[in-house]
Amino acid sequence: MFSGKRNSSLRTLCIQSGEKYVPLLIVSTILAFPRSVQLLGDSCKAFTTNCVDGIVANTDRIDKLLHDSLMLVTALNPHIGYDKVRDSFHKTYSNAAPLADPTAKNVKQNLQEHLCMQAAKIAKTAHKEGTTLKQSALKLGYLTEAEFDKWVRPEDMLGPK
User: How many CB atoms lie within 10 A of CB 73?
Assistant: First the structure.
């Protein structure tokens, strides 16, 4: 019986040679199947014994990486994305035409461009300064520590609500 690479080569040759070698292909595949299952089983046992057994998660490190991740900024968008931007935008453009006015296309466009920029600014500042999102948000004054702790909860971001 062929084994390993030779068995694979035999099946390839049978497939390329046409239908008169199909019975040989079937027989070689059936004969190789138990050996393939045994190899797969032995590989799983070796992997478990040599790699998996004894692994202990470093929960402190995982927790730190999770809570310091800049990707958590997405949790802030529903809370500071629109309202804070709208307020700061209106302070900046207080003399501009009302948003309902169709001639105020420039103002509307600027508002749309500024949507969710506060959360992005927090993330960019944290990345640039090498700080956490929380430190950056507090420094920029966009929210309080209690608001950050209430809104940024990684466990709430794990699946659909």
Answer: 23
For the chain, the structural domain boundaries read: 5-52, 59-157
> Which of 98-118 are b and which e, b meaning 16 or more Cβ less than 10 Å from the residue's Cβ?
eeeeeebeebeeebeebebbb
Say if CB 157 and CB 75 are below 8 A apart: yes
Tell me if 150 sits within 8 A of 140, measured CB to CB.
no
CATH number of this structure's domain 59-157: 1.10.40.30
Alpha helices (runs of H) in the chain, residue ranges in sequence order: 5-17, 22-47, 59-67, 83-92, 105-114, 117-129, 133-140, 145-151
Q: What string of pLDDT tens digits covers the 161 residues of the chain?
A: 445 555 667 777 777 777 777 787 788 778 888 888 999 999 999 999 999 998 999 999 999 998 888 888 888 877 776 455 455 555 555 554 454 444 455 655 555 455 457 788 888 889 899 998 899 988 988 888 998 899 888 888 887 76
